[in-house]
Amino acid sequence: MPGKYRESTVLEGQRAKLKPPSLFKVILLNDDYTPMEFVVIVLQRFFAKDREQATQIMLKVHREGRGLCGVYPRDIAATKVEQVLAFANEHQHPLQCVMEET
Ligand code: TYC
C-alpha cells in the first residue's frame, strides 16, 4: 500500500494483535517453623509492604494457610518467588511461595 502513511498503518496492525500481559498472584504459604518476624521481613523486603501491612499479611497466612503478597506480570512474579525461596533457604527456613495465574 503506497503512500506516506504506510508505516503507521503497519504499526497499527501490530498494535491490534497485542494482548495485555497475563497477571500472576504471588502467594505465601504457612508452615510450622518459619519465624513470624522472618515472614514480616520478607514481605517488607520483596513486596514493598510497610511493617503494618506486612504483619497483617503474615498473620493472615498464619491463620488461614495462605495469603496474597502481590500481583505482577509473569517474569516479575517468577523473580519474586525465586528471591523469596533463595532468601528462605539461605536462612534455613522452610517458607514456601508460589505463583498462580489470576
Ligand atoms: N506459622 C508460623 C509460626 O507460627 C509463622 C508463619 C507465617 C510461617 C506465615 C510462614 O508464610 C508464613 N512461626
Automatic annotation (TrEMBL):
Kindly state which keywords UniProt assigns to this record, in alphabetical order: Hydrolase, Protease
Adaptor protein ClpS core domain boundaries: 19-97
Q: List the Gene Ontology MF annotations in alphabetical order.
A: peptidase activity
What InterPro entries does the record tag this protein with? ClpS, ClpS_core, Ribosomal_bL12_C/ClpS-like
Q: Does the keyword Ribosomal protein apply?
A: no
Domain of life from the UniProt record: Bacteria
Q: Which GO terms describe its biological process?
A: protein catabolic process; proteolysis
Q: What does this protein do?
A: Involved in the modulation of the specificity of the ClpAP-mediated ATP-dependent protein degradation.
Task: State the similarity comment.
Answer: Belongs to the ClpS family.
Question: What is said about its interaction partners and assembly?
Answer: Binds to the N-terminal domain of the chaperone ClpA.
Name of the protein this chain belongs to:
ATP-dependent Clp protease adapter protein ClpS
Q: Which organism is it from?
A: Sulfurimicrobium lacus
